[in-house]
Design brief:
Strand content: 15-25%
Structural class: alpha+beta
Number of helices: 25
Shape: globular
Largest sheet: 6 strands, antiparallel
Helix content: 25-40%
Number of strands: 25
Bound molecules: 2-(butylsulfanyl)adenosine
Length: 687
């Protein structure tokens, strides 16, 4: 049962507009299929392609007489390229129907139930929809004999040599319970940690960057030289059996179970559930976890678990009725770069920010994206007016990942770094070999003044409630506040003169300033805004020195002793306290009555003197949390492995650092052992 089993419908008179749109859509879709599958260089986001494709499917559904056998809808994927030997999939590799709302999902589930005539709750598997490349693996007598891409669903490409380099693909199955011929289907993907590490390395050597993990996986699998595939960090999750000889499993769950036993990788998050509500709960939960999984998922695949029911439901136009893809909001979209603005940060760093034609991506409308620095602009070869690919995942700042060169307008202009600071006109400096350009004016630059005041007042610093960005801007622009110490000299009358400030809010702000005088030493250090001194480092400094004189007088060597402080940070701290202006501000703050209790002498630091390195992804906590917990226990956390490293924590996707640790014979531990060590010391500490 394939493409031809559409319901015949009464022929309707040709509508020329529709016919034209259908033909235009087909041409467009063919163009993008070629860019994607043959050139590995897409011009639009996957979601945008999906939208074109769905539109064509809809039009063909409502105007069946317009369907032609060469329409792209009559194929599941793209033409296989001539670079690889052709394979024919004996059982076609199917596509999925999609839905993207609770309502649509509920309708799909109700249709399933009524078709099989079942009253109660159906059993489903819910599986992350891994965003990678569909692959078929054939095992003969337990030995991998062929790997193939899906291609158009029937005709794929033989990529046996390449899949053999993917370490998650067993070359021989475990045990002896598998059928003589077994076809395993699954998704080859690139874990995010590997993707980022690869791009960081490529950026250094000036190689072409991978656009996104999915494109990266596709491109890597279709290398003519398997050595190149082997050098890419690929992995695989298996999700179904195609050919399976005499093996007759009853359910999808049984297949996944058997796979695990044979050494095939099955996603950790797959579940078997009963009923529609449990499916929707899973869809919601996985979306919440989406950013922490360590690989891209673009939705959830829900499948009727029972194979007898699957057969009863059947397959229409290569889309099974027994499965559906619940799609998550796309994290990628294309839009137009309208301008680039240069922002001056707290430490004078000049950051180019892209002003974009607003676009809906990752569940929000985005009109700005960071461009990091000029090197990034050059690497992207970005011009004003360009069409660009924008990526937004979770709460991460949106990024411009690619320029669609073929859409560059004739009048596109290069982006140039201004010569002078946009806030204070001081000539911008860019030290040799550094990516970041800076305004060297320090706190005489109004932009830096504003940003450092905002930082000083922020929640994790002095936490001055009611002192928002707009207010800081006004205070600086009117010359009422030049540095943090001036804040404590403000009175209610002066505040009331500001825009949108009544006696009530002025009084509240005065109260908030008063309350912020009582703080902690760590917050105070953090609030000073010393370059490279984040909250964790500030806490380490506070516990180590315990009073301001000891800290401000400490030598670089003494600073270096502190957990989380290396030579660069030590010199930044020293420079900060050597600066006369800073000395004056700090003194005035103390005179204004800022005070804190002396931090208790650290009771014990079980990991004192140890240097740890974190690499790969952690599942139970973020890198920052892991680092904070180590620092609290007295360890230093370093960015690279050297002879003085005590231990390396390696999560999935760990690359060169783990290798270096092995070379140097430094103990490598996984996350489970790491958590055990943390727990042991932390409970001892509190007990
Ligand atoms: S089932 C029913 N399960 O999504 C047969 N597909 O259009 C269809 N995919 O490119 C496949 N994760 O490679 C299935 N757990 C999963 C999947 C999955 C990702 C991909 C698949 C194909 C697309 C389906």
């Amino acid at each position: 049962m394939t493409d031809t089993d559409r319901e015949p419908s009464a022929a309707e008179p040709g509508v020329p507009d529709v016919a034209r749109e259908v033909e235009e859509l087909r041409q467009l879709i063919r163009h993008h299929l070629h860019r994607y599958h043959v050139l590995d260089d897409p011009e639009i986001a996957d979601s945008e392609f999906d939208a074109l494709f769905s539109r064509l499917v809809d039009l063909e559904d409502t105007h069946p007489h317009l369907v032609t056998s060469d329409s792209p809808t009559q194929r599941v994927g793209a033409e296989p390229s001539a670079r690889f030997a052709a394979v024919v999939h004996e059982l076609p590799m199917l596509s999925l129907d999609k839905c993207d709302s609770h309502e649509e999902f509920i309708e799909w589930e109700a249709r399933c139930r009524s078709r099989v005539g079942y009253e109660g709750d159906l059993e489903f598997t819910c599986e992350p929809k891994i965003d990678g490349v569909a692959v078929s693996l054939i095992y003969q007598d337990g030995v991998l004999i062929r790997g193939a891409t899906r291609g158009d669903g029937t005709n794929g490409e033989d990529i046996t040599a390449n899949v053999r380099t993917v370490s998650a693909v067993p070359l021989r199955l475990l045990g002896d319970t598998w059928p003589a011929t077994l076809e395993v289907r699954g998704e080859v993907y690139m874990p995010l940690a590997g993707f980022r590490a690869f791009n960081e390395a490529a950026a250094k050597t000036g190689e072409r960057l991978l656009v996104n993990p999915r494109n990266a996986a596709a491109g890597s699998l279709r290398q003519l030289d398997p050595k190149l595939t082997a050098s890419r960090p690929l992995s695989m999750y298996c999700y179904s059996a195609g050919l399976r000889g005499a093996w007759e499993p009853d359910t999808q769950w049984q297949v996944l179970d058997a796979f695990r036993g044979w050494g095939l990788r099955v996603n950790e998050s797959v579940v078997r559930v009963l009923g529609v509500k449990a499916c929707l709960d899973y869809v919601r939960r996985l979306l919440e976890e989406r950013d922490t999984l360590g690989y891209d998922v673009d939705g959830v695949v829900v499948k009727v678990n029972d194979f007898a029911m699957q057969s009863a439901l059947g397959t229409v136009t290569r889309r099974p009725r027994w499965a559906v893809a619940y799609k998550y909001p796309a994290e990628e979209a294309t839009t137009v770069l309208k301008g680039v603005e240069f922002q001056v940060g707290r430490t004078g760093a000049i950051t180019p920010v892209a002003r974009l034609e607003p676009v809906f991506v990752g569940g929000a409308t985005v009109s700005n994206a960071t461009l990091h620095n000029m090197d990034e602009i050059e690497r992207l070869d970005l011009c004003l007016g360009d069409t660009v690919m924008v990526h937004r995942a979770g709460d991460v700042i949106p990024q411009v990942t690619k320029v669609i060169e073929s859409k560059r307008p004739g009048d596109a202009r290069r982006v140039v770094m201004p010569e002078r600071c946009p806030a204070c006109e001081t000539p911008i400096e860019r030290p040799e070999g550094e990516a970041v350009a800076r305004c060297p004016a320090g706190l005489t630059c109004p932009a830096q003044r504003k940003e450092s005041l905002k930082h000083f007042a922020s929640r994790l610093a002095m936490d001055i409630e009611g002192l928002g960005d707009k207010l800081v801007d006004q205070l600086v622009e009117r010359g009422m506040v030049k540095d943090p110490a001036d804040l404590y000299g403000l009175d209610a009358d002066a505040l009331e003169s500001l825009d949108r400030m009544g006696p009530k809010s002025a009084g509240n702000l005065i109260d908030a300033l008063g309350a912020s005088r009582h703080t902690t030493f760590a917050r105070f250090i953090y609030a000073l805004g010393i370059r490279e001194v984040g909250e964790t480092t500030a806490a380490g400094l506070a516990n180590h020195f315990r009073n301001l004189d000891a800290l401000s007088g400490a030598s670089e060597e003494a600073l270096n002793e502190v957990p989380d402080v290396g030579p660069i940070v030590a010199s930044r701290i020293r420079n900060f306290f050597d600066d006369e202006h800073n000395q004056r501000v700090v003194r005035r703050l103390v005179v204004q009555g800022i005070e804190w209790p002396t931090p208790a002498k650290p009771v014990r630091s079980p990991l004192a003197g140890e240097t740890w390195v974190l690499t790969g992804t952690l599942a139970a906590m973020t890198r920052n949390e892991a680092r904070a917990r180590l620092v609290k226990l007295g360890a230093k956390v370093a960015g690279s492995v050297s002879g003085s490293t005590t231990r390396v924590v390696a999560g999935p996707g760990a690359g060169s650092k783990a290798e270096r640790a092995k070379e140097l014979e430094i103990p490598l531990i996984d996350e489970t052992d790491f958590i055990a060590i943390l727990d042991r010391h932390e409970t001892k500490d509190s007990g």
